[in-house]
Amino acid sequence: MCVLVAVGCTSLAELSNLRSRVQDAGYTGVSVEHNTSNGFDTLAVAAYAADRGTDDGEKIFRLVWETYPEDVDRVVVVVNDKARAASKEELRKAYGPRKFQPAGGSGSGTVLLWVLFAAFLVVCGLIAAEIVRRRRRRRVERVVPPRPPGPYYKF
Known about the structure:
Elements: H1 2-24, E1 28-37, E2 40-48, H2 58-67, E3 74-79, E4 82-87, H3 88-95, H4 108-141
Parallel strand pairs: 2-3
Antiparallel strand pairs: 1-2, 3-4
C-alpha cells in the first residue's frame, strides 16, 4: 500500500501544479482529476471563470496540452458548469505537437517495478525472520543438561 502511495506522489504533484497554473490563469474553484480505466487516461478539469458567457475553456485545454507532463487520451474541461471534451488527436490538431513527450501510458510499468521491489523486500524480511526463528530454536534445544542427582541419602 505504501509503495502505491509513493508512486502516486509524482502524479499528485503534477496535478497540483496544473491546478495552480489554471488558478494563475484567472480561474477559481479549480478541481483537477486524472483517471485511468483500462489503460485509457482521462483528465478532468473543473473551474469557474469571471467572464461567465465568453469562456469556453480554451485556455485550460492549452495549459493541459502544453504543461501537463502525463499522457492523456481525453481531456474534459468544465467551465461555469458547461462541459467540453477533446481527444488527444483533437488537441494535437488544435495546438500542434506537444513541446515535450509524456512518459507514456499511465505509469503502470513504474508501478509494477515498485510492486516487485516491495515483494522482494517482503521476501527478504520473511527469510530473515525464519533465520532468526531457527537460531532461537537451536538455542532453546541446547539447554544445559540438568546436574546429576545428589546422593540418595540426606544428612
